[in-house]
Design goal:
- The protein has one domain: Gcn5-related N-acetyltransferase (GNAT) (Aminopeptidase, 3-Layer(aba) Sandwich).
- 24% of the residues lie in helices and 25% in strands.
- Strands 1-2-3-4-5-7-6 form a seven-stranded mixed sheet.
Length: 182
């Protein structure tokens, strides 16, 4: 779990960069710690996703994936410590022609929250998803993550009455989408 006596971060030292294999262990721990913080651990949540053990493998572009996915981390430029991340890929259960991607694995260490990096990394994901040809970005969350939901709504995400695709996150009850054509 997170340290209660955390040293404040210096935003000037932080940068957003693509995920790398050396980030995998830190990101796995971050996902589990954040979900534990909000009481969202177990089947039906991202903590049960097999890919959290090696997120870089899932998100790094290959010839087979072209540039239909990406993941970025917020890291300290000096000591390379990772404090958060977010990415996107095609929504499971949809086809390329559907043009729907999912905003995925958006998790921030409490020390990073409130410094504006949520908006910055979200802007990066949206920009890259548009360049990849997606027409809609979808996300799933929980009511416990109210601050994140507020950020998504301010960014233009609209609430949906039901889930899309087949993410396997049956414990999530908040569904939102963003039109990427505008």
């Amino acid at each position: 779990m997170f340290s209660q006596t955390a040293t404040p971060l210096n935003p000037a030292q932080l940068l957003i960069r693509p995920i790398a294999p050396q980030d995998d262990a830190t990101l796995e721990k971050l996902v589990i710690d954040v979900l534990t913080e909000f009481g969202c651990v177990g089947p039906g949540y991202a903590s049960a996703d097999p890919e959290i053990k090696s997120l870089s493998t899932m998100y790094l572009s290959t010839a087979a994936h072209k540039s239909d996915r990406g993941y970025w981390v917020v890291a300290d430029g000096k000591n390379h410590q990772v404090y958060g991340g977010a990415g996107f890929s095609r929504l499971r259960g949809t086809t390329e022609n559907d043009g729907i991607c999912e905003l995925q694995k958006v998790y921030f260490d409490p020390k990073l929250r409130g410094l504006g990096f949520g908006r910055k990394i979200l802007e990066r994901c949206v920009q890259e998803a548009k360049q990849a040809g997606y027409r809609m970005m979808y996300l799933e969350s929980t009511p416990q993550m109210k601050n994140a939901l507020d950020i998504y709504a301010k960014f233009g995400f609209q609430y949906l009455p039901a889930p899309l695709g087949n993410t396997g996150h049956h414990s999530c009850s908040v569904f939102m989408s963003l039109d990427l054509t505008q």
